[in-house]
Design brief:
This protein is mainly beta and about 375 residues long. Helix content is about 10%, strand content about 45%.
Length: about 375
């Protein structure tokens, strides 16, 4: 009995220590106006002096140029026996430059182990080829990973979903291997020995007043499609606006009329509550509701925020009777995930991934009224 108690206590202690050591941080993928229309070239890195600069589409797959000036991208190889493209990383022939956020584990970066990443959301990306449409992708599960803090080498096994031509596809068990480095501002004086981190990523972080910067580049193969992929990210911590109570308001999207979202920020708890009034994904055959419409829906969620980003699980509420009870009313827990990146006190990008109905996408939000903008800007300082 004493042995069992001792073992149980030891296991509990290990779990508690692991929870303490896990130090999550959400970083925003970096962009820079000086890098607009920069392709990475064969070395596969943006901003280090040998970029291919062009406002035209690339030569092989006609990938759109880096109009958002992002240091992050996904590159693909669609034609294994096709010609090389001088704008592409060596061995790839298509590219999408991306916006979004990545959640890292500072404890793993400091002490090794893995995985280094717990979440990645690409809220928008340029077209890797004409007709692709809006590009978004999300890591839906982190299966495993390793990291060597001495060499910077990592492995990562993830499931992720992506959007192509308006349709969502899933890629389970994609294995990426590569190099990753993270450094906080207090350690910027320490040379990591990585020329790109020292010459591009770190100066960018210092110029933008970031509290930390991460650089990751890895390659792998898509499980279902069989295409090689290169994922490269430079992301900054603590830049731009920070989520605060000045963001409490009604927000709307020009692309989703007659819908709206309400945000409530609980600063003392570090939480943001979201309620999204929306509609079913298909028009109901019989919509003869006495009050309102039978296709109305509420999506609600609560999540911890970090800097200008929040990622949360959401629930779906449907059915019900006005001012009364209804046994047919339903609430679906774990309906999916929503991530929000606040670009300013009057603009945000919301990305959603609802696996059940196969709905994924992103939209730009603005306030209904700007009354709280001055408060938000004051609290962000």
């Amino acid at each position: 009995m004493r042995i069992m108690v001792r073992v149980a206590f030891t296991v509990a202690l290990i779990l508690a220590c692991n929870q303490v050591m896990a130090q999550s941080a959400v970083l925003t993928i970096a962009s820079d106006p000086s890098q607009v229309n920069h392709y990475p070239g064969p070395d596969g890195l943006i901003g280090n002096g040998d970029d291919v600069i062009s406002a035209s589409n690339s030569t092989v797959q006609n990938s759109s140029p880096n109009s958002i000036g992002s240091y992050g991208f996904n590159a693909f190889l669609f034609q294994p026996f096709g010609p090389a493209d001088p704008a592409m990383p060596a061995g790839f022939d298509a590219i999408t430059f991306v916006n979004g956020a990545v959640t890292i584990d500072k404890g793993v970066f400091a002490s090794g182990g893995g995985p280094i990443v717990s979440a990645l959301t690409i809220t928008s990306g340029t077209e890797p080829f004409p007709g692709h449409g809006a590009y978004t992708s999300t890591i839906t599960a982190v299966n495993s990973g390793t990291y060597n803090q001495l060499t910077g080498e990592f492995t990562l096994n993830v499931d992720f979903s992506y959007t192509i031509n308006g349709s969502t596809s899933n890629e389970p068990g994609v294995v990426l291997t590569g190099t990753a480095l993270y450094q906080e501002a207090a350690d910027f004086g320490t040379d990591t020995g990585n020329t790109y981190f020292e010459g591009v990523a770190k100066p960018l972080a210092q110029a933008k007043g970031a509290t930390g910067v991460v650089f990751m580049t890895g390659t792998g193969t898509l499980t279902n499609l069989g295409f090689p992929i290169n994922a490269t990210i430079v992301a900054l911590e603590g830049v731009g606006v920070t989520i605060n109570a000045g963001m409490n308001d009604a927000w709307v999207s020009a692309d989703a009329p007659f819908q709206g979202l309400f945000f409530t920020v609980f600063e003392d708890l570090g939480l943001l509550f979201l309620s999204w009034f929306t509609f079913d994904s298909q028009i109901q055959a019989n919509n003869n509701a006495t009050f309102g419409a039978s296709d109305q829906r509420w999506v609600t969620g609560l999540g911890n925020y970090n800097g200008n980003t929040v990622i949360m699980s959401v629930e779906l509420t449907s059915g019900g009777i006005f001012n009364g009870s209804d046994p047919l009313a339903g609430q679906t827990a774990n309906y999916g995930t929503i991530s929000i990146i606040f670009i300013s006190c009057n603009e945000a990008v919301l990305s959603y991934n609802f696996p059940g109905p196969g709905l994924t996408g992103q939209m730009t939000l603005t306030r209904v009224v700007p009354d709280n903008v001055p408060l938000c800007e004051m609290l962000s300082q």
